Amino acid sequence: MIGTIGSANYSGTATGTLVIGQVTSAVSVASGSNPAVVTSAITFTATVSSKLGTPTGTVSFLDGTTLLGQGTLSGGVATLTTSSLAAGSHSITALYSGDTDFVASTSGTLTQGVLDFSLNPVAGSGGSGASQTASPGGTATYPLTIVPTAGTVFPTPVTLTVSGMPSGATAIITPSSWTQLNSTSWLFPANTPMADLSLAIQLPSPTASLDRENLFLRKLPAVLLGLLLLPFTSKLRRASKRLGRTVSLVLFLVAGMAAMAGLSGCGASTGFFSQQQSTYSVLVTATSGTLSHSTTITLIVK
Q1: Do you find a cis peptide bond into 157, omega within 30 degrees of 0?
Q2: What tens digit of pLDDT does each residue of 231-290 get?
């Protein structure tokens, strides 16, 4: 007769050792931002799973063989946030330490990219570069490059600012992919291929300032002429009596021409009223998140 479980045909006791082994586990690792910008905070997430239950314990995060830190599992998930990774490529793994019920396990390798960028002036078609010379009303143009350490795109927006320009000067950034925020700053969108850019500084025309100066200078020649002729007034009166009005008029004209020649000389390149050469150090700064790089260009106005 074939019995069934629970049948009276099967009865008795047995002794022995029952061994319950640890259950296998699996762990994976992911990055919250890949690639990321150097100095920015990157959060790595490890997920530990099993077909029988939820593992507990800790997970170690490694960059190659270098320990970055540990996270404690909660619901099978552990995280670690770090901003210590240098620019370059990093091999990230998560190592689950195991517990009384689950066997330790190691994740596959996650390749984490960390990007930096450089900001530099470059030589233009005329061989210029970081130094330009322009006259009032003219334009100085500076070719610039912003180059990521890998690839041609940057994962976060880049803001460009310009400071130290002459009063009244205007800055222009091209190409049009740079969106102007105000008179001295522009924004480049994230994840967009970067191309060489150009900074043009348009100097104000000297007309406005000269007009203000001329309100005074237009009256100055007559005043100086009077001062120059004052010591000769009495002599000219006597001379006019002896030599007549014609000679007196000639003397006045000669004196006037001398006064105007003196004023004209003041307007020469070494004169008092000439545009003096000025040198400006213009600071160009590119910022993305907590990362910032600057370069200085020279503007000579003469």
Answers
A1: no
A2: 655 655 565 555 555 545 544 454 455 444 444 443 434 334 456 899 999 999 999 998
**Under a CB-based contact definition with an 8 Å cutoff, are residues 76 and 47 in contact?**
yes
The CA distance from 301 to 186, in Å, is 25
- Residues paired with 244 in a beta bridge: none
In this prediction, residue 13 carries a pLDDT of 74
Enumerate the domain spans of the chain: 26-115, 117-206+277-301, 207-266
Give me the CATH topology for the region 117-206+277-301: Immunoglobulin-like (2.60.40)
Assigned token pair, 276: 């003096």
Distance of alpha carbon 205 from alpha carbon 94, whole angstroms? 64
What is the sign, positive or negative, of the torsion defined by CA atoms of 172, 176, 177, 182? positive
| The architecture CATH gives domain 26-115 | Sandwich (2.60)
* C-alpha span between 118 and 98 (Å, rounded): 44
Token pair recorded at residue 25: 């586990």
d(C-alpha 114, C-alpha 289), whole Å: 13
End-to-end CA distance of the chain: 118
pTM of the model as a whole: 0.69
Domains 26-115 and 117-206+277-301 share a fold: yes
Whose tokens are 């000067």? That residue is 169
Q: Are 106 and 27 contacting, i.e. CB atoms less than 8 angstroms apart?
A: yes
Q: Compute and round to an integer the Cα radius of gyration of the chain.
A: 41
> pLDDT for 130-146, tens place per residue?
999 999 999 999 999 99
Q: How far apart are CA 52 and CA 187, in angstroms?
A: 52
CA 266/CA 262 separation, integer angstroms: 6
Amino acid at 228: L
Residue type, 92: I
- Of the CA atoms within 13 Å of residue 120, those in its CB half-sphere come to 6
Question: Partners of 97 in the beta sheet?
Answer: none
- Length of the chain in residues, anyone? 302
The mean pLDDT value of the chain amounts to 82
Cβ proximity of 37 and 47 under 8 Å: no
